[in-house]
Specification:
The complex is a heterodimer of chains A (about 350) and B (about 80).
Chain A: H1 8-16, E1 18-22, H2 28-38, E2 42-46, H3 71-82, E3 87-91, H4 100-104, E4 109-112, H5 117-130, E5 134-140, E6 143-149, H6 161-164, H7 177-180, H8 185-203, E7 212-217, E8 222-227, H9 239-244, H10 247-253, E9 259-260, H11 262-268, E10 274-278, E11 293-294, H12 297-303, E12 311-315, H13 321-333, E13 337-340, H14 343-349
Parallel strand pairs in A: 1-2, 1-4, 2-3, 4-5, 9-13, 10-11, 10-12, 12-13
Antiparallel strand pairs in A: 5-6, 6-7, 7-8
Helix pairs in contact in A: 2-8, 5-10
Chain B: E1 2-7, H1 11-15, E2 19-23, H2 28-38, E3 48-51, E4 54-55, E5 67-71
Parallel strand pairs in B: 1-5
Antiparallel strand pairs in B: 1-2, 3-4, 3-5
The chains are: A alpha/beta (about 350), B alpha+beta (about 80).
């Protein structure tokens, strides 16, 4: 390849790079041959699904002969035809919180080719724990989203997917591709753009799509970019909670934790059997006198056993962390639990406070 | 004063339009309250907001001509 800025050094970086593609569907299929073509030395391919007829319009690596075969296995065979020297690892099964840290840990970065929220949150959280960048892509009907997350930063913490959407959508809240359908060329566009970001990230060329979300509308042929910022209420991810979280359950089946408004909260705290739990960090203001305990979100996981056998009402600054905390308490302690909607911000906004 | 609102992805199922002009809205909370009144299904929807292509984390004061974007998560692939 002869391109300005794309010399031997860039080629050597690509040759040394290890990229994991999770999901060999509409996004992963177009990304893979371009990563191989660019000279990425080691590529991991992960997908537990088999090829079906309805995939072929957008999953362009596959043919009718592949129907019924595992996607990762077929894709790896195509890759070796393209370039026999590439080191290929095949993972013909689904990413879970039990295998994610081990597998992702062996790579420099992850290209997200998945098609569901459970997998996207799982990849995000694993990459946060392992401090690995990931290249996010997703489509919805005629629009696609693209961003690079979790790049190392000199100060503070890097942006990740939970800065955009701290907790996963509820069942049926956002339709998946299977329900809504997608025009095949759209994931083709987004997937190749993800591959381009991978090449830029490895070589250091150009401006990476980090700190920005790109939305592309294929019908309008128009893109819209949003500069991103850190979400202060982001749930804390630690290894223990990661390993214990049921991502599929969290994203698809979990019933909502009841959220109560300030008026309901005021009534509830009059009850004798209610325990008000503040999950803000200790440095957060204002101090309040109506909570029964303060256990910061970052310590909650290890302090769950200290909660009494009462109805728990969880509060925080804005009512986002408290939902996450309440889900954890219900899952692990099976206590009746509520979250104050809008948090202390809403509480102190009521007249007379 | 006019404010331009842009809706992305599945949010247009709720609003039926991808672009809307509203008058006399001085901050993003007022815009949200107006939209939730007009489109109750928006209350249950997940999205983040941006003003002039900058994501916001709290209420933001609006100036004439500002563009407010509503961006939901996508999951397809």
């Amino acid at each position: 390849m002869i391109l300005p800025g794309f010399g031997q050094e860039a080629q050597e970086k690509l040759r040394a790079a290890k990229v994991l593609i999770v999901g060999m569907g509409g996004l992963g299929c177009p990304a893979l041959p371009y990563l191989a073509g660019a000279g990425v030395g080691t590529i991991g391919i992960m997908d537990g699904d088999t090829v079906s007829l309805s995939n072929l319009h957008r999953q362009v690596l596959f043919t009718e002969e592949d129907i019924g075969s595992n996607k990762a296995t077929v894709a790896a065979a195509r890759l070796q035809l393209q370039d026999a020297e590439i080191k290929v690892a095949v993972y013909p099964y689904t990413l879970t919180n039990q295998n994610a840290l081990d597998i992702i840990g062996q790579y420099d970065l992850v290209l997200d080719g998945t098609d569901n929220f459970a997998a996207k949150y799982l990849i995000n959280d694993a990459c946060v724990l392992l401090k690995k960048p990931f290249i996010y892509g997703a489509v919805s009907r005629f629009q696609g989203q693209l961003a690079v997350f979790n790049m190392p930063v000199a100060e503070g913490r890097p942006l990740n997917y939970r800065d955009l959407f701290p907790v996963s959508p509820r069942p049926g809240e956002i339709q998946s591709c299977e329900e809504t359908g997608v025009i095949g060329v759209l994931p083709g566009i987004i997937g190749t753009m993800q591959a381009a970001e991978v090449v830029k990230l490895i070589t250091g060329l150009g401006d990476l799509l980090y700190g920005r979300l790109l939305n592309y509308d294929v019908l309008q042929a128009r893109s819209y970019e949003i500069r991103l910022s850190l979400q202060p209420e982001i749930p804390v991810i630690d290894k223990d909670s990661f390993l214990q979280m049921n991502y599929a359950f969290d994203c698809e089946e979990e019933e909502d934790v009841p959220e109560i408004n300030v008026a309901e909260f005021n009534r509830l705290v009059q009850q004798p059997n209610i325990f008000v739990l503040d999950v803000r960090e200790r440095h957060e203001y204002p101090a309040i006198d109506f909570s029964d305990a303060q256990i910061p979100m970052s310590e909650l996981q290890s302090s769950l056993e200290t909660l009494p056998e009462k109805e728990i009402c969880v509060i925080c600054h804005q009512g986002i962390r408290s939902v996450y905390a309440a889900q954890l308490i219900r899952a692990r302690r099976n206590l009746p639990v509520y979250s104050l909607k809008g948090g202390l911000t809403a509480y102190f906004n009521q007249p007379g406070k | 004063m006019q404010i331009e609102l842009l809706f992305f992805g599945s949010l247009t199922d709720v609003t039926t339009v991808s672009r809307l002009i509203v008058e006399n809205m001085t901050d993003t909370e007022l815009v949200k309250a107006y939209l939730e009144e007009r489109y109750p299904a928006l209350r249950a929807a997940k999205y983040f907001m941006a003003v002039n292509q900058q994501m916001i984390q709290q209420v933001h004061t609006l100036q004439p001509g500002d563009v407010v974007a509503f961006m939901p998560p996508f999951s397809g692939g």
